[in-house]
Each structure stands twice: as structure tokens, then as C-alpha cells.
Amino acid sequence: MIVAFSVSPAGGESGSVGVAVAEAVRVVRDSGLPYELNSMFTLVEGEWDEVMDVVKRAVHAAGAGSSRTSLVLKADIRPGHSGQLRAKVDRVEQQLSDSP
Hints:
By secondary structure, the protein is α+β, with helices and mostly antiparallel strands.
């Protein structure tokens, strides 16, 4: 599965969302799962239980010291497929190069 998620703390004392988001991304990076980071979401790929565990730990990391944490999550659940973070993009780019 691929999960795209965005996590943001609210009601904390630090006032820096960037620091909290970096802590969440650190959890994802340290998980060893394939991931991509962009300006809106972090994408992570793996099996259901391992991906959801990483998301849960990332939410806790980002929300440390905050009274509230917001999570937006979208999942593409496709059993038996891996390497789709890049493969999906490659298929679209192939279509673009094939069209006039």
C-alpha cells in the first residue's frame, strides 16, 4: 500500500510547525520504508501494519508537546504490488512521452 499523509500539531508552545513536521518525517525516514516527501504530503509504501505503525509514530512525534494534532491520510491499497511509488509516476510519464 501507499499512504499519503500530512500531520500538523496545534496548540503547542513551540509555535514551529516545521520542527514538528521534521520530527514526523524523521520517523518515516528511520523506518526504512520507501518514502517521498513533497510540499504537501509524505508518501510511504509498505505492508498495511508497518505503514500504519509508521504513520501512528509520526503523528505522535509531530504532536509531542501539543494539545491537538491534525492528520490527513489517503491510502492506495493494492495487495501484491510493491515499488509503486516510482512505477505509478513512470507510467504517467510514459504516457506523456507517447502523446503528441
